[in-house]
Amino acid sequence: MTTAKKATNIRATIDATWGSGQGKLQLDDIFQDDPAKSRPLTGSTLLRDKSLLVTSTFDNSSFFISKLNHLGAVDLAFGVEGRVMGSFLANEQAAGGPIAEGADGRLFMAGSTTNGKSSEVSPAILCLDSKGNRVSSFGDNGQVIIDPPNTQRLTKKGPAFVFALPDGSVIVGVDYHTPAVLRAHLYKFDAQGAPVKAFGTDGRVEIKHGLRHASTSLSDGCVLDNGLLLFAGYEKYEPDVNTDGLVVMLNSDSGAPHENFGHPERPGILVVRYNSRGAELNTVRQRAPNRFTASGYTNMGNALSERYGMLIAFDEEGKPDFDVFGSPNIMPLPADLGSDRRVNWADHVPFADNIVVSGGDEKGNYIACVKARSGGYNSDFSDAGGVIPREETTDSLSRLHYQQDPGKLIVALNINPENPLGCLYRYNIAQ
Fold it and tell me: Whole-angstrom Cα distance, residue 313 to residue 316?
């Protein structure tokens, strides 16, 4: 994770070089020559060469991966005319998903394949080289189909995240349903696509609370500078209707909880409760050595509209990081944008003295800048103030990608909830 250089302020402006001049690209604009009717964005990642990978599911049947250059144009040298399309298993429906770049330049997409007769969904990993070719030495011709832990555990959707470790291994996060609860599972595969047997049980770690009727779910994860693994999500006790934010730190070799993180009674676990009405975390980032941030929401009341964006900052032991926030930072939108709207910080990018967050709802989407320590909106962030709104509606969680030199911020999300359409905004970031 790269954080920005020390600065007291940052400012965002629309990048007119991206797209049609409004700093916006849509997948249907980029791929006008493709007959697909549906173009949702299922994953994206910024590569070290400053190009962008996007994934999609075309016509509910094929996964799709494309590479865009620094101006947002399709890189025709990638795959076939700038795209890779296909399926995992014959006669099954494939779906795209989150994607990550490995240290050796290999690309890992965590998608899924669905059996048309049984409707069973199986997570799958696709491994490509930097040119978009399958890496034949990984799994079975560049792919691995992940089997469920047992016949009682099924998943209704593909993996939530994927990331690569420096040694070429890869971590994939999948939530499985049992008859009673939801459980988060982490899989680790080596550079050849084989399960790493020493990681948990035969390459799999199940995130449990200890109570039989407790659900867990992880939505994001990353490898830290010191090699540890950090994850964010939620846990829920049945029949309680509310969730608690959840942060998990594990050892990367064994998958065991990191003993020095969290409460001694639950090592490796940090439970985030702002009040008794529920919280959930979407993303987690390393902002500095042994310092971390996470974003999500908390419910301030019993009504759905009383959901506020939440940021937390903590150290390597799970204790509050007072250099950022000593306690969870809770924020509604400014009054002029509708302070009664429900808010969920879908993603965030930590800077030295600010944190940029993103969100959206049926009234539009937005990015915002929150000041560290004081916790208020940074009114100098843009001409519009501390929040930059867009009119396009969304019901998906946006993702942020930040690059330095020059400073660029990409917002990746789906607009038009009735027929989700992938959309990419880009802003210049000055410090």
Answer: 10
Question: Parallel, antiparallel, or unpaired for β 347-350 and 354-361?
Answer: antiparallel
Which residues pair with residue 245 across a beta bridge? 234, 272
Residue 122 located in a structural domain: no
Identify the pLDDT of residue 275.
79
Residues 31 and 52: their CA atoms lie apart, in Å, by 15
**b/e map 294-315, b = 16+ CB within 10 Å:** bbbbbbbeeeeeebbbbbbbbe
Which two tokens mark 384? 């519009």
- Is residue 10 included in any domain, yes or no? no
Is residue 44 very low, low, confident or very high in pLDDT (cuts 50, 70, 90)? very high
Residue 2 pLDDT > 50, yes or no?
no
Q: Which residues lie below 8 Å from residue 312, measured CB to CB, with a gap of 6+?
A: 245, 272, 281, 293, 294, 320, 325, 328, 329
- How many folded domains does the chain comprise? 1
Is 100 domain-assigned?
A: no
- Bridge partners of 99, per DSSP, are 109
Pairing between strand 204-207 and 182-189? antiparallel
Q: Tell me, yes or no, whether 160 lies in a domain.
A: no
pLDDT surpasses 90 at 239: no
Under 8 Å between Cβ of 113 and 145: yes
